[in-house]
Design a protein that fits this description.
The chain has 173 residues and is an alpha+beta fold. The chain is built from 3 helices and 12 strands, in the order H-H-H-E-E-E-E-E-E-E-E-E-E-E-E. Helix 1 runs antiparallel to helix 2. It is globular and about 50 Å long. It binds fe (ii) ion (FE2).
């Protein structure tokens, strides 16, 4: 039977309460993949005429996790960032996200960050990936994409760590 948003949310809460965070994130990422593979979920969440932006699909009152639907405009790339003390899981419903994970190579107390790319990969439809607290990543969407993001908390209420123009990005050799 097709895996629904309601089942995903119920499972997410149960997993977060039962498992240490790294295990929980891996299991929720696997379930997000199942949800994204349900065409009925994709059809009821997104439509071709939806403008770029995001909507909150679900907030869990007990554990605080959020499920968000993003319509990502094509031909756009984001800056490296982490979600501070929160985690995030990304998954695509249509088209793809080009991801880069970064590592800071200089001490945190220096004003500007020096970031080195440690991995690059593409998340296509039905593919998901979890990012634990503090993991620095950046996303690019060469084409308009439909993305589901699950976050540990309301990220708008948390300090977010964005890396700006003055920061140095080192390419992996
Ligand atoms: Fe992010």
């Amino acid at each position: 039977m097709a895996y629904t948003l309601a089942q995903f949310c119920t499972d997410g809460r149960a997993i977060l309460k039962a498992e240490p965070l790294p295990n929980a994130l891996a299991r929720i990422a696997e379930r997000l993949g199942r949800l994204l593979s349900n065409p009925a979920f994709v059809a009821e969440t997104f439509s071709d005429d939806m403008p770029p932006g995001r909507r909150v699909l679900y907030r869990d009152a007990e554990t605080g996790f959020h499920v968000l639907a993003h319509v990502q405009e094509g031909n756009k790339a984001g800056k490296p960032h982490s979600h501070g003390s929160s985690w995030a899981i990304y998954g695509n419903a249509r088209e793809y996200t080009d991801m880069v994970e970064w590592r800071r190579t200089n001490p945190d107390n220096e004003e500007h960050a020096v970031l080195q790319a440690v991995s690059r990969y593409r998340l296509g439809p039905g593919e998901t990936k979890a990012y634990g607290p503090g993991v620095i990543h950046s996303t690019a969407h060469p084409k308009k994409a439909w993305v589901i993001r699950v976050t540990g908390t309301d990220l708008d209420a948390l300090p977010r760590y964005r890396f700006g123009k003055e920061d140095r990005l080192l390419e992996k050799t």
